Amino acid sequence: MRNSLKVAKWEIKRNLKNKTFLISLFVTPLLIVLFGLLGSLFGDDHSEKATVFVHDELGILTSMEAIVEQADLDLELQPTDINETDVEAELEESEDTAYMFVNETALTEGKIPVYTSNDFPNVGQLQILTQPIKSLQLQELGLTEEQMAAIAQNIDVQVQSLDDLQGDTVTEEQLAAGEDPLMKRVVPGIFAGIILLSIIFTGMMIFQSASQEKKDKIAEIILSSVTPNELMQGKIIGYFVLAMIQAAIILVFALGFALYKFNDFPLFEYLLQPQLLLFLLIAVLGYLLFASIFVGMGATMSDISTAGNFQGMIMMIPFISFFFIGPVLSDPTGALAKALTYIPFTSPTILLARLVRLDEWNWLEISISLLILVATIWLMMKLAGKIFKVGMLMYGKNATVGEIMKWLRT
Amino acid sequence: MNVLLSVEGLEKSFKDKKVLHGISFEVHSGEIMAILGPNGAGKSTTIRSIMGILMPDEGSVIFHNHKGKGIPRNKIGYLPEERGLYKDVRVMDILLYLAELKDYPLDKAKQRAMEYLKKLDLEGKEHVKMEELSKGMAQKVQFISSIIHEPELLILDEPFSGLDPVSQEVLKTEIRNLAKSGTAILLSSHQMNLVEEMCDRVFMIQRGHKVIYGTLEDVKKQYANFKCTIHGKNDISLLEKIPEVVRVEQTDDTSILYLTKDVEAPKWLKTLPDEIVINELTLDRVSLHEIFIDIATDKNLLKDSERQSLEEVGGTNA
């Protein structure tokens, strides 16, 4: 174990001094945040207010402004004396602008002429501005204040879902207080998911490291000091630490971004839940499984650029589960989701996704899945050790499937 | 001399092909022993078995009374034939890492690294990345990496390949110095002149079999016959009729006559016919290079009877 730790320490030190690794360490989270920001930059964000010029002959502009403020409309009202005939010329040179003519016709016929520029975004909100005219109409009919208030009141359809009846609906207050049970699973789930993805990607560097050591012909020198198993374990530990460093940096960026975007959201209260430990365990087990595959495969190749079909297919194994994420999330208790939970190569991702979606966890399913995963890790480490031992000393060519099988049988 | 390493009856097969057939030899403290053989003879497999990188099917490797996995690897230095170092790493970093893997104190390692970098004309290169060094310089760093931890046994597989003559001389001096200070050195090389110049004893392997084993002098005396070089225009058929001549090689006006074993050179000279034109004559024992070529190319050598006679050389000198 001492030698494994020496190898691990070396791999960490070597990579942390490597410019390419350092750049990717910070560029990856930056790219993630950048894509997040681009989404909001190019999304349908019409936070800028449109201007509505009101030609007010009825003296209701103040009431209309009150409605704009009350309903938090994206409109800015301004009085105007312009005539309807001049509107066209004005609009030709305007953006996000509307002209509204509130006059006797509007009161008697219930029709308000409105002229907008072509790109006017808030046509729907203009309808709300008609409320003061409605009040004026009611006044004309001689209704009392109380009658007018009753008529002016909206008639709402009050829908109650099963969750409402069972008291499961989360109010905004509960959400802000960190009491949403779904968020208590989703936030740690996303956190563990980022770690899992990060360690899978950084774990792929083990593969590169093993094949590079063969290419640079240093493997034999190292193996004269440590056993193949110690070298393999050292690489797995070393790249795990590097992956955690990468994950930590991604999370710092991601948390910073999340706090900036959702500043009222109690992120840490949702994150620091007991289930986070289980999610992290699943992520670490996933890493150990895939790392053993990567390190073994790396030893079968003379050069990373010469990866054959077989090696290429093996390298795809960790990503198979992502094809099933959609169906599993939409039906987390379905047969497919359950079956994939017991397949070790898909279980880390699928189990994580299911646990995030499910209100109640089936601990028997979780235990069986984890047991299968641990047993497979043990087996894969043994097999990877056999491949690594012979593969690292084979120079100049990629190992064939037949050769790998032969090494596994010895 | 102390026996530091003892290799006893190594057998190894890959798939169905047997590559080592009962290889046995010893290496003593303070000596330079050559392990020779043509490509594919089994040298690297023997060396890897000593290093514990490969496990032999039969036989044992004993180092300091330790066997197999119990052998302290940190007492052995190894420079493999297929070698290289991390390209993107600085010279001192890689040397310290390899010393650390051998459990050697880092402060001492740093001191020794500086000392050897200076000795091998690499002073000031400690912070240079390996990829910035020339091939020869990189090889010197690889050599330093194999001795940085003061090994008691140093195994060098083709240490001179790719080095210019000046660097070869520097390396030869260092290897000799290490032997003088008590380090046992097992040296594999195809450069027979260097082996002949440096080594005390020779072990030669051919197709996994031991074919020569003994001191250089005894091997040459017992295996290598005399050869007589005659400068002068002579008919080859006349030379072939001379008693005790086994083979004649002729180029232009020079003829080399290979004599039978056990011939007494002074007496034989008197038997040369008068009609032979002799402008100049030299009588030597054949070189190690010629012995090597003979063994490597002589397919019949591996016939049981001949192998037995060759092993007698080893037997008498071991």
From TrEMBL, chain B:
Keywords: ATP-binding, Nucleotide-binding, Transport. It comes from the Bacteria. Residues 5-232 form the ABC transporter domain. GO terms for molecular function: ATP binding. The keyword RNA-binding does not apply. Belongs to the ABC transporter superfamily. This is ATP-binding cassette domain-containing protein. It comes from Pallidibacillus thermolactis.
